[in-house]
Amino acid sequence: MHAFVTGGAGYIGSAMVHTLVQHEYEVTVLDNLSQGHRAAVHPDATFIEGDLRDRDLVDTVLRERDLDAIMHFASKSLVGESMEDPMLYLDQNVRCGVNLMHSAVEHGVDRFILSSTANLFGTPEEIPIDEDERVDPGSPYGESKRILERMLHWLDELDRLRFATLRYFNAAGAVSPDLGEDHDPETHLIPIVLEVAQGIREKMEIYGNDYDTPDGTCVRDFVHVKDLAQAHIRALEALDNGSRVYNLGNGDGYSVREVIDTARDVTGCEISAEVGPPRPGDPATLVASSAKIREELGWSPEYDTLEAILSSAWAWHQKHPNGYDEV
Ligand code: UDP
């Protein structure tokens, strides 16, 4: 099997490439390195530096390579940024997906896995969130993923391809001490907490403590990138039995305060945290029901505790305090 991974130099995409290589897939990566890192791409994968907005490039790659499946990770992915610059998301994320699907249909690459998001559910009515929850995106970012999900729905309906969309909650952890999370600027909770533990940041801010949750801080469902990658392999292998949509998380929620407290235990470091105002667009609680993927594909997370997730992330941060930038 030859898999084409867009965004394969990014945090989740590079974990996926690593796992595909371990499963003996042939892998081609396309990434524009706007957020990803060349050093994160597994050496056994073929790397193409390029942009999905370049329709001719995408078309050439899909025409010339004998691809069996597409895994589409390349995306702008920050809720807050999409609230400030909606067109960046509604244009770029959608255009990249359109170009990719166009070429996939034209060249008969008929297996498509889309990296989707819990932000599809804006403010959910039921927690844990299952696949029957009403889709009502909380931001232009979530909306861009909904548009791509709907396109895939029609391509399946009209027999052009089969797809799986995986809506993940909070991806976290590191594949190994040499393959982890490195964003610039960093906005995500766990890397920020660990940067404070390392002394790279003096302190952090807790975005609001007046939510309707047990300790007043937001509750999230953290799932290890390695477990996410395993779920993608299973979803891909199940496509011959039809298209599918899954919510993907650990099934347990942890508050921002619990993450900070557990990080203090794991690292043995003081982590100075102050309460600040809430961040616009943040729902109080996002926890997935992963019952469907567990039942249908037999997936279950190996890293199902916050300690295990934080420990793996901590090993990466300690070995690479400057991320992939070794200076
Ligand atoms: N958060 C925080 N301080 C930070 C970064 C994040 O309190 O410096 C909170 C954020 O408000 C959210 C949770 O941590 O409730 C997870 O945020 P993150 O950006 O990691 O992921 P998201 O849930 O937005 O995908």
Question: Can you walk me through this structure?
Answer:
The chain is of the alpha/beta class and 327 residues long. It folds into 2 domains: 2-171 and 222-247, 3-Layer(aba) Sandwich (Rossmann fold); 173-221 and 251-286 and 303-326, UDP-galactose 4-epimerase, domain 1. It is 38% helix and 18% strand. It has helices at residues 11-22, 55-64, 79-84, 86-106, 140-157, 189-198, 225-238, 256-267, 291-297, 306-319, and strands spanning 2-6, 26-31, 46-49, 69-72, 111-117, 162-168, 170-172, 204-207, 219-220, 222-224, 244-248, 254-255, 273-276, 285-286. It has a 7-stranded parallel sheet with strand order 3-2-1-4-5-6-11, sandwiched between helices. Helix 1 crosses helix 7 (225-238), helix 4 (86-106) packs parallel to helix 5 and helix 8 crosses helix 10. The mean pLDDT is 96. The structure holds uridine-5'-diphosphate (UDP). Uridine-5'-diphosphate is lined by residues 79, 170, 187-189, 192, 204-207, 218, 220, 256, 279, 282.
Count of folded domains:
2
Kindly report the CATH topology of the largest domain: Rossmann fold
Strand segment tally: 14
Percent of residues in beta strands: 15-25%
Output the structural class: alpha/beta
Shape: globular
Q: Name the poorly predicted regions.
A: none
**What does the main sheet amount to?**
7 strands, parallel
- The radius of gyration computed from the alpha-carbon positions, rounded to a whole number of angstroms, is 19 Å
Q: What small molecules does this complex bind?
A: uridine-5'-diphosphate
Reported CATH architecture of the largest domain: 3-Layer(aba) Sandwich
SS element count, helices: 10
What do we call the CATH homologous superfamily of the largest domain? Answer: NAD(P)-binding Rossmann-like Domain
pLDDT averaged residue by residue: 96
Instruction: State the name of the first-level CATH class of the largest domain.
Output: Alpha Beta
- Walk across the major sheet and give the strand order: 3-2-1-4-5-6-11
Distance between the termini: 38 Å
Order of helices and strands: EHEEHEHHEHEEHEEEHEEHEEHH
How much helix, percentage-wise, in residues?
25-40%
